[in-house]
Amino acid sequence: MEFPVVRVGTWNIREGVSAVGDTDVVGEVATLTREMRLDVLALQEVPFIDSGSPLLSQVAEASGLPFVAEHVLSAAMHTSGRSGLGLVSRFPLESIARTVFPNPGLSLNGSHSFDKGMLTASLTAEGRLITVATLHMFPFHRFDRRAEDDEFAYVWEFLGKEVSRQVRGRAFVVGDLNTRRRDLIQAKGVPLTSAVAGDVDDILYGEGARRVWGKTVEGFSDHDLCVAEFALA
Predict the structure, then answer these.
(1) Which of 33, 44, 40, 31 is nearest to 7 (CA)?
(2) Torsions phi, psi for 123 (to 5 deg)
(3) Tens digit of pLDDT for each residue in 144-192?
């Protein structure tokens, strides 16, 4: 029996500032989205001006994924505006939720931890209800700390509870985890499996979805694009 499939991507786009020289960022994101035939693309470090993101709107239009959700989180690191999360989708986005993680107040050499969080939306893909949650976790390593340190357990527990509370249907938890420890995400009733063997970025999926393939693609950012295809049982 053949099941319908959905393709999911996630990418930390470095606030639209290329790490490899002069690059048409919107053009590259849109081209890869079309070439990979993505149904949903989750983005981290999306640049915002005031409350909107021209880059996110341009990507949605150029890639043919017209439905957009966004979550502004903190001051930007590479631009003068704000930074946050975004979703672009081939299917309408519903039940949109914006979550801010408890900030552990990390500091080192004048730097401090910006707010991080999660953007969640439900959608119906090929007749199947799924939930996509894109997240950006704190960069503990930049402060000479480890994500798995006991003092940060409450941050991961908060994330796990929010995933459990917000997920409807088949779950996809994706984004920049800032750690290789996927097991730190413990969502009660929502078992998650890694689909893409990236570094700190991943696409985690739950029951009701079967991984067909997954891959990473290099681009303008200091993070790779992660893409995976799933059969929806």
Answers:
(1) 40
(2) -155, 160
(3) 999 999 999 999 999 999 999 999 889 999 999 999 999 999 998 899 9
Q: Is the dihedral angle over the CA atoms 40, 46, 49, 50 positive or is it negative?
A: positive
Q: Count Cβ atoms below 10 Å from residue 63 Cβ, excluding itself.
A: 20
pLDDT, tens digit (0-9, with 9 covering 90-100), for 94-120: 999 999 999 999 999 989 999 999 999
Q: Which residues contact 111 (CB under 8 A, 6 or more apart)?
A: 142, 143
Closest alpha carbon to 166 in 115, 114, 206? 206
Distance from C-alpha of 50 to C-alpha of 73, rounded to nearest angstrom: 11
Furthest-apart CA atoms within the chain: distance in Å: 58
pTM above 0.85, yes or no: yes
Instruction: Using alpha carbons, select from 141, 136, 140 the residue that is nearest to residue 99.
Output: 136
Strand-pair category, 201-205 with 209-217:
unpaired
